[in-house]
Amino acid sequence: MTQQQKLGPVIAIVGPSGVGKDSLMEALVAADPRLSLLKRVITRAADAGGEDYTPVSEAEFSKRVAAGEFALHWPAHGLFYGVPADAVTAQRADGRGVLVNFSRAVLHQAQETFGNFIVLNVTASPEVLAARLAGRGRESADEQKKRLAQAAKPLPDGLEQVYTIDNSGELSAAVQAALEVIYPAARA
């Protein structure tokens, strides 16, 4: 058995802003002890809210990139995001799955980097997305419109394991649907 076979899946959680990615990830971890959340490094202010992340300055982020500390890193929405290499490897030990909020733009790179890779494409109706964006109050009305316009953007072609999870309704339904595709043999 190779090292890659021993490592659990990296589970990419992707979808538009307001779709409930953070809520879904937290609920999945609470529902199944084989799953954990990866804490990303982000050039976002510490008091910005949202997910649990490690806030850093752009200068610090650049130092970490140069030191090779990230398995993957990318820019999005005026910020920089990084997946700490040591953390993702440690969290995948013993076959455990690690949930990561990824940008669509790096999915191919993530698939190549991690091997055992699953994409959960989280969706919700346009009405639900608009209400959630307005309710969280992190973006201006113009920024909300831009994010809503991006919601229908398709995933890149060529990804191997992609599953769509509708998170328009009860969170518990989305959790059940996600668990069934992450660990199908355990649910049979």
TrEMBL record:
Q: Which reaction does it catalyse?
A: alpha-D-ribose 1,5-bisphosphate + ATP = 5-phospho-alpha-D-ribose 1-diphosphate + ADP
Q: Which residues bind ATP?
A: 15-22
Q: Which SMART domains match?
A: GuKc (SM00072)
Which Enzyme Commission number(s) are listed?
2.7.4.23
One of the record's GO molecular function terms: ribose 1,5-bisphosphate phosphokinase activity
- GO:BP terms for this protein? 5-phosphoribose 1-diphosphate biosynthetic process; organic phosphonate metabolic process
Arranged from A to Z, the UniProt key words for this protein are: ATP-binding, Kinase, Nucleotide-binding, Transferase
Task: Give the UniProt family note.
Answer: Belongs to the ribose 1,5-bisphosphokinase family.
- Please give the function described in this protein's UniProt entry: Catalyzes the phosphorylation of ribose 1,5-bisphosphate to 5-phospho-D-ribosyl alpha-1-diphosphate (PRPP).
Query: Protein name, please?
Result: Ribose 1,5-bisphosphate phosphokinase PhnN
